[in-house]
Structures are given as structure tokens and as C-alpha cells.
Amino acid sequence: MGEVVEVRLESPVGVGATRSIVALVLAVFTVSVGYGVVLPLLPDLVGRLLPVGAAQARVSWHTGMLTAAYSLALFLAAPVWGLLSDTYGRRRVLLTALVGFGVATAAFSLVDTVAWVYLQRFLSGLFAAAADADRRRHHR
């Protein structure tokens, strides 16, 4: 009757796993911010790069296609990044992808034709897919 029961509340996740989750959340946050910063700039940039007098419908069409190019790259590259992370390790692949995403995002400031904007958005999507692929694998 007078017995005391000791209850320990321990995290089911170790310290190393917690660091991994924090790093992954920061990677996803970085990619999301990069996407969110560029997206509102696309219509104005496309409008400046198209010939003078281009219709607003043409600017809107290119903006939509640029968003689709990013999404297509995410869709195509996520399984590849997942396989690479299984082979070479998640940390190495995620760091490589974040560097690539940073370079691709910095290249956004250098584009001077609509074709280059398409290439930049596609490359950004390719590199951003690594964070998404790793996030999906982590939640299995």
C-alpha cells in the first residue's frame, strides 16, 4: 500500500535523431523560404524579359509554366535523391542539395532570358527535391 512507483518519461527519440530532425526541418524551411521569395517575383521578371508589349496573358502563362517546371523537377528528382541518400548517406546528400539549391537560387539574379528562368526554376526544383525526399523517408 505504501509502495512508491517511479515513472520515467524518456523521449523515444535519441539525441542524434533529434538533431537530424532539427536539421531536416531547417532544410525544408530553407527550401520553402527560397521558393516563397522567388515566386512573387516571377510575373514581374517574366514581364521584363518578354518583348515589349507582350500581353498579360502571356506573362501569366509563363509564370504558371515556371511554377509547373519547379513542381515537375520535384516530382522527378525526389525518388532519385532518396536512392542517393540511401546509398551515400542522408547528411551528405542533403548538404549537396542545399548547396545546389543555394547556387540555383543565386543564379536567379543573373537570368537574362525567359529560357534561363525556366532552367533556373527546374534546377531549383531538382535540388529542393532532396529535402522533400528526405522528409518523406524520415516519416515512415
Topology record:
Layout: H1 15-38, H2 42-49, H3 56-88, H4 90-107, H5 114-138
What do these coordinates show?
The chain is mostly helical and 140 residues long. It has one domain.
Q: Uncertain regions: pLDDT < 50 for 5+ in a row? A: none
The helix-and-strand class reads mainly alpha
Sketch the topology as an H/E string, one letter per element: HHHHH
Rg calc: 21 Å
Summarize the structure.
With 140 residues, this protein is mainly α. Helix content is 77%, strand content 0%. The protein contains five helices and no strands.
List keywords for this structure.
140 residues
